[in-house]
Amino acid sequence: MTATAPLVTRFAPSPTGFLHLGHAHAALLAWRGAREAGGRFLLRIEDIDSTRCRPEFTEAILEDLRWLGLDWDGPVRVQSRHMAHYQQTLAALRQRDLLYPCFCTRGEIAREIAASASAPHGPDGPLYPGICLRLPAGEVEARLAEGEPHALRLHMSRALRCLEGPLTFEDATRGRIACDPAQFGDVVLARKEVPASYHLCVTHDDARDGVTLVTRGDDLLPATDLHRLLQVLMRWPEPDYAHHPLLADAAGRRLSKRDGAPTLRDLREKGTTPAEVRSLAGWSD
After folding, report:
1. Exactly one of 257, 280, 282, 283 is catalytic; which is it?
2. 244 - beta bridge partners?
3. Burial of 109 from C-beta contacts in 10 A (0-12 / 13-18 / 19+)
4. DSSP assignment, residue 105?
5. CA-CA distances (angstroms) from residue 124 to 14, 60, 147, 154, 255?
C-alpha cells in the first residue's frame, strides 16, 4: 500500500451464528478507521462453507450492524454468489501446476500422521504428510476420470520456488514481519463440501475490492503468511495489516460463538443501548 492510496477497510464475518462483542470490536475498528481517514468501509459475508453458514444469520448480521450505527460503502459482497471468481483463481494455479488433487480421507491422513515418529505441526495442526503427492500420474488421472471425490492442495515447495525474494508484510503495531508460509504445508484450497477455502477467498476478495488495510484478530496473524504467498502467486496488491487483540471474558477466555459469548441480540433484548454496546466493545462515543 502506498502512502497516497485511499484507505479501504472491511469487516468480513461468517454467518455461522449471531454477532457478539468481539465482532462488534472488530467491525468498529475497521469502520472508524475508514471514516476518520475519509476512506471506504466494506462489508463482506464469508458464507462459502454451506455446511455451517445460514441465511438467517446473514440477515441478523446486517440488522446488528445497523443497530450499532454502522454503515458501509457499496453493496454487501456475499461470497457464495461469486464462486466463478474463485474457480478462475484455482484454474490459474492449476495451469501453473501449483495445485494437486488429494483423495485422502481425514481418517487416512490421521492414520498416516499417527504412524509417523515426528509429524510436523503448523498453525492449524499436523501438516499433511504428502500421501497423494507421491501417487503415480497414471493413477491420479484414472481416479479423476472416475470422478473420485478429492481436495485441491497447494504444492507448497513449488509455490515457494516462484518467489523472487523474501516474503514480508507490514503490521500496524508489529512493523515489518517476515513470512513463513511453509509452516502450513500443502494446505487445502478447495474441497467438495467447501469448493474454495477461506484462505483463497479472503485473499481474492481483498484484492478485488481494493482493500488497503486488513484489520482482524491476532489469532489470524499466522494466516497472513499464507495470504501473502497467494498474493504474490496471483500478482495481487499487498495491503497493510492491523492484527488486534481479541476481547476476552472475565475468566480471560477469548469471546467466541463456540463458548456461548453473549450476542449483540441478547444484549439488545436486555435493554442495552447501542452506545453501551460500543463501550463494552472497547469504543467510547
Report:
1. 257
2. 217
3. middle
4. -
5. 19, 29, 29, 15, 19
Amino acid at 116: S
> What averages of pLDDT result for each successive group of 10 residues across the chain (285 residues)?
76 96 95 97 96 96 97 97 97 97 94 84 92 96 96 98 96 96 97 92 98 96 98 98 85 64 91 93 75
| pLDDT for 102 | 97
Position 2 scores a pLDDT of 45
Strand ranges inside 131-258, DSSP E: 151-154, 168-171, 175-178, 188-190, 213-217, 240-244
Contact 25, 247 (CB under 8 A): yes
Beta-sheet strands, E only, within 158-268: 168-171, 175-178, 188-190, 213-217, 240-244
257 is known as an active-site residue: yes
Number of Cβ within a 10 Å radius of residue 50:
11
- One-letter amino acid at 141 equals E
